[in-house]
């Protein structure tokens, strides 16, 4: 069912891209600093629609970072640099989500960078595995392969997915108040070939989990939302079910037993990724910009034939979540996960 909004916009124009979420925005002059009244409407639109597409925004790296900073405190790539990655860009606030190695050469199929990046091709939200999750992401096309070679970005509307939960599933979620334990290494391993040289022996249990409620009130809109992702390694009970459960630093909440935990995660992901909740956005021009709210949509990289043939140079700024749920059930620390 389409979600109605009564918001009036006077400085920007919107074209809905799907019945329940996502809009293309025009009327913004990115050749100069975005004026407050214009940004206020952009900010309101992201609350209403979750995903905003700006064609031919034409931002360079510096203006990309400056525009992203209007949304809040920016994340950076320092955890990746510590592990040995080099930054091709002049700003640590820009994440490299391209098919290029640090030296600019194309990533080879079957390489470490390729296998590590396959997790981007399954539905997820940015940084749910970190103590403080991501709020907004701003992804810009710096260089695109020729059209017809794929490389769309797909989005899933998890607010409407919650609205349309089957009755039994809704009852289960509300009664049990599950916590999702998110792991970057879990999603990387899940998406990679089973015999991946770099991931087959990785044990996600040896890495930190980011813990967040599965069902949340999306604070900006007041709507209920499924905060789920393929990063979810397992589920936990907010309130213990066993009288003998003793919380520890490593296991502060009682785990949902297997296979119940995995089955429920996969059922939720399958429900929220049904075609009626998903839109695939094509990158039409170098300079296109897409902004989305990780706290109410999932996203993934679409399929394509450009790998090893054409550069797809995509640059992302990530804004730390500023909501009351930003830290979930995690220690308030600056430690974050990275990939070598």
TrEMBL record:
<keyword id="KW-0408">Iron</keyword>
<keyword id="KW-0223">Dioxygenase</keyword>
<dbReference type="InterPro" id="IPR051178">
    <property type="entry name" value="TfdA_dioxygenase"/>
</dbReference>
<comment type="similarity">
    <text>Belongs to the TfdA dioxygenase family.</text>
</comment>
<keyword id="KW-0560">Oxidoreductase</keyword>
<feature type="domain" description="TauD/TfdA-like">
    <location>
        <begin position="14"/>
        <end position="318"/>
    </location>
</feature>
<keyword id="KW-0479">Metal-binding</keyword>
<dbReference type="InterPro" id="IPR003819">
    <property type="entry name" value="TauD/TfdA-like"/>
</dbReference>
<dbReference type="Pfam" id="PF02668">
    <property type="entry name" value="TauD"/>
</dbReference>
<dbReference type="InterPro" id="IPR042098">
    <property type="entry name" value="TauD-like_sf"/>
</dbReference>
<dbReference type="GO" id="GO:0046872">
    <property type="term" value="F:metal ion binding"/>
</dbReference>
<dbReference type="GO" id="GO:0051213">
    <property type="term" value="F:dioxygenase activity"/>
</dbReference>
<protein>
    <recommendedName>
        <fullName>TauD/TfdA-like domain-containing protein</fullName>
    </recommendedName>
</protein>
